[in-house]
Design brief:
3 helices; about 90 residues; about 85% helix; mainly alpha; elongated
Length: about 90
């Protein structure tokens, strides 16, 4: 039970951090300093970890990695949209 609390808390902190970065990117419409490979790597890793978590029946990490996967998709869409707007 204590291990689950640590896992859920850590997942929430990571997700909030990524959501804040995505919000800042959306608000400023900036692409400078944002690596497209960050989102590609996050997408790949989150997919792999979600499958791994499912196979282990680890619901904390399955839920977390699905949320991180969604964050990666939203972030990549914003990155591409911001690049199109700036013509880069």
């Amino acid at each position: 039970m204590k291990a689950d609390i640590i896992g859920w808390t850590s997942s929430v902190v990571l997700l909030l951090t990524l959501l804040r970065q995505t919000y800042t990117q959306w608000r400023t419409k900036a692409t400078a300093g944002v690596s497209r490979w960050l989102f590609v790597g996050q997408l790949t890793a989150s997919t792999g970890y979600a499958i791994y978590s499912y196979l282990l029946h680890n619901w904390v990490f399955l839920t977390s990695n699905i949320a991180l996967l969604a964050t990666a998709v939203v972030g990549e869409c914003m990155y591409l949209s911001n690049r199109r707007r700036r013509g880069t």
